[in-house]
Amino acid sequence: MTKKYNVDEILDEMRRMFPNAKAELDYENPYELTVAVILSAQATDVSVNLATPALFEKYPSVYDLAQAELLEVQKLIKTIGLYRNKAKALIGMANQVVQHFDGQIPHRHRDLLTLDGVGQKTANVIRSVAFGEPAIAVDTHVSRVSKRLKLAKEADDVSAIERKLKRKIKRERWIEAHHLMIFFGRYHCKALNPQCEVCPFTAQCRYYQNKLKQ
Fold first, then answer.
1. C-beta separation of 134 from 174 below 8 A
2. 12, 139, 156, 211: the active-site residue
3. pLDDT tens-digit map of 162-183
4. Does the annotation mark 121 as catalytic?
5. Where in the chain is the domain with CATH 1.10.340.30?
6. What is the pLDDT of residue 2?
7. DSSP secondary structure letters along the chain
8. By CB neighbour count within 10 A (0-12 exposed, 13-18 middle, 19+ buried), where does 48 fall?
9. Which CATH number is associated with domain 7-21+140-213?
10. Which of 75, 121, 168, 170 does the annotation list as catalytic?
């Protein structure tokens, strides 16, 4: 039986496991990150990174994307899931940024939420990764890890999970926690076949305890 860890100890252990945890989307500036994060919804970072070079070459700025033809954008991102809706959202987002924010991706949470294709998770990613603002974005990996390690309840939705994580984790560790939990969930605590046999957190893992009962 392994020891039970508090939240800081959990993050410290995850950092030892994944010392280079960071955003895996390729981008050069807030505009490119915003596009990449919008595209990453229900898609892998790998698939997004394969599509964005050609997209950014054709539309190197938010002004270029605002003038884009819908079908042209669709062609460039056709390998990504939901590409039709995402192409429309990208052009809409670009026009909103040009019209309302002088061509600069806004950093305030409430402003980001006004953009097409940007929800709570996307806004938090942009704020934390592009601008270094403390935020925790709850994606499928963060949600799964939070529930398994009993940092949230099984029935909690993403909003409840975000609130609980922000309450339990020190503000100065929010950005780090986001990346660590994603890496831990993506490469270790997977949805299927998690690496329980080499996991330090089995003593407090809801998934592992349930598996022992089976």
1. yes
2. 139
3. 999 999 999 999 999 999 999 9
4. yes
5. 30-131
6. 64
7. -PPP--HHHHHHHHHHH-TT----S--SSHHHHHHHHHHTTTS-HHHHHHHHHHHHHH--SHHHHHT--HHHHHHHTTTSTTHHHHHHHHHHHHHHHHHHSTTS---SHHHHTTSTT--HHHHHHIIIIIH--------HHHHHHHHHTTSS-TT--HHHHHHHHHHHS-GGGHHHHHHHHHHHHHHTS-SSS--GGG-TTGGG-HHHHHHHH-
8. buried
9. 1.10.1670.10
10. 121
**Is 88 annotated in the active site?**
no
Digit-coded pLDDT (tens) for 127-164: 999 999 999 999 999 999 999 999 999 999 999 999 99
Q: Residue 117 region, left (φ>0) first, then alpha (ψ -120 to 50), else beta? A: left
Cβ–Cβ under 8 Å, residues 179 and 21: yes
Smallest CA-to-CA distance from 13 within 211, 149, 156 is with 149
Residue the block writes with tokens 């990453």: 40
Query: In this structure, what token pair is assigned to residue 114?
Result: 């006004």
Tokens of 143: 């949600």
pLDDT at res. 3: 79
Indicate the CATH number for domain 30-131.
1.10.340.30
**Residue in the block written with tokens 């807030």:** 30
